[in-house]
Amino acid sequence: MLKAVVLIGGPQKGTRFRPLSFEVPKPLFPVAGVPMIQHHIEACTKVPNMKEILLIGFYQPNEALSRFLVSAQQEFKIPIRYLQEYAALGTGGGIYHFRDQILLGNPEAFFVLNADVCSEFPLGEMLSFHRQLGNPDSFLMLGTTANRKQSLNYGCIVANTETHEVLHYVEKPSTFVSELINCGIYLFTPAIFHHIGTVFQRNQQELLQEESTNGWQRAEAIRLEQDVFTALAGQGRLFAYKTEGFWSQIKSAGSAIYASRLYLSCYSQCHPERLAQNQPGGPTIRGNVYIHPAASVDASAVLGPNVSIGKGVTIGAGVRVRESIILHGASLQDHTCVLNSIVGWDSTIGRWARVEGTPSDPNPNDPYAKIDSETLFRDGRLTPSITILGCNVTIPAEVVILNSIVLPHKELSRSFKNQIIL
User: Fold this and answer.
1) What angle do helix axes 253-270 and 36-45 make, rounded to 10 degrees?
2) Omega before 280 cis (within 30°)?
3) Are 121 and 111 in contact (CB under 8 A)?
4) C-alpha dihedral (51, 57, 63, 64), degrees to nearest 10
5) Is the peptide bond prior to 364 cis by the omega test (within 30 degrees of 0)?
6) Is 413 exposed, middle or buried (0-12, 13-18, 19+ CB in 10 A)?
7) Which of 180, 198, 261, 413 has the fewest beta carbons under 10 Å from its own?
8) In this predicted model, what pLDDT tens digit does every residue of 306-354 receive, in sequence order?
9) What are the pLDDT digits (tens) for 251-272?
10) Can you tell me the distance from the alpha carbon of 319 to that of 321, in angstroms, rounded to the nearest whole number?
C-alpha cells in the first residue's frame, strides 16, 4: 500500500503571498476554482492502492482547514488527516517528527509533495519508474528542465543520463550547476527515515557541543534539500525522474494567476465540466474560464482567457475580465474592466472602473522558462506586477488602479498607480 504527505508549511511563510494569505491559509487559496492543495490530493487519489493522505504543517487547525478536510474526504473517499507541528520543522523535520504516523499500516512507499507547486503530478509514472529501478531502498525526486539563469533559484540536480542516479545536488547554487531542477515532489521508501535520523543525530551532537550559544535552534528542524539530498547524492540511492509536463512554483500572488492558467488548460482533458461554455443568453467566454455555479454573470460580460470566478461573485453588464482570479463574494459593477489582477473576497469595483496589473509570465519564447519569484521592489520602486485587492476593498466608479497592492478593508477615493496602499 501507499501513502502521501503534503507539506503545507505555516503562517510565518507565505509573506510574498500577502495580502491574500491574511484571509485564508495559502494552501487553501483557490487556483483554477479549487483550493491549491486539492490538485495535489486529487492526483494522489488517482494512484492505485493509495490508502491515506497526511497534511503536515504549522498552521493552527482552523475552521477553514477543518471544513476543507471534511469535504475533501467526502469527495475523494479516502482518509485525509492534518498533523500539526509544534514548531516549523522544515521539509525533512516534519516528516521525521511524524514518522510513526506515516509508517502506520506499513506502507511500501510514500509520496511527499510541497504544497506551493503546481504540476501535472506524474505520480503513477514515478511509481512505475521506481519499480523499474528494482532497488526497493532507493528514493526518487521529480525533476524538470529550467533555463540556465533561472536554475540558480532552485535545487539543481546532476544526474547520470543512463541510470538517472543523482550524482550531485545543490540547493540554490551561486554558479551554474545544472538545468535539471528539483520539483519538490518525491517518492520515498521507509528507509529514508534512517538518513533523516542520521542528520537528526548529528544536529543533536552539534547542539550539545554549542550548548548555550543559541538556545532557540532545534535539532528537529531538518531541510530535506540541503541536509538530506546533498548527502545522499552519489551514493546510488537517490534517482531523478524527469517530467516533460507543466510545473511551476506558487510563491507570489502573481504566480497564482500563472498556475491557474496551467490548471485551466489541462481541465479540457481531466475536468471538462469545470470549464464554462458559450451558451445562448450567457456571457461570452474566450479561452479557458472557470465560473462557480453560485456566481451570477450578466449575459453581456466577456470573460477570458484564463479567468476564475468564485462563489457568490456578481458580474454586471459589459464587464471585461481577462487573466484574473475573482474571489468569492466580490462584485464587479457594470462596465468594469479587470486585467491581470486578483480581486479579493467581498470586494467591490464601481462602474466603469479599471483594475489592471502587469503579468509576470515566464518568457513565452523559452520553453524552459519558469516564473520569476521577483522582488516587490527594484531600485526602491515597486516592480510592476499583477494588481491585488485584499478582502473587502471598495473601488469607486470610474477610477483606474494600476500595478498596485491594496490591503484589506480599504475604501479608495481616487486612482492609484504602482502603489502599495496600506
Assistant:
1) 40
2) no
3) no
4) -80
5) no
6) exposed
7) 413
8) 999 999 999 999 999 999 999 999 999 999 999 999 999 999 999 999 9
9) 888 899 999 999 999 999 999 9
10) 7
CB 238 within 8 A of CB 169: yes
Give me the residue label for grid cell 491574500: 20
Look up residue 153 and give its amino acid.
N
Those residues whose C-beta lies under 8 Å from the C-beta of residue 12, and which sit 6 or more positions away, are 58, 88
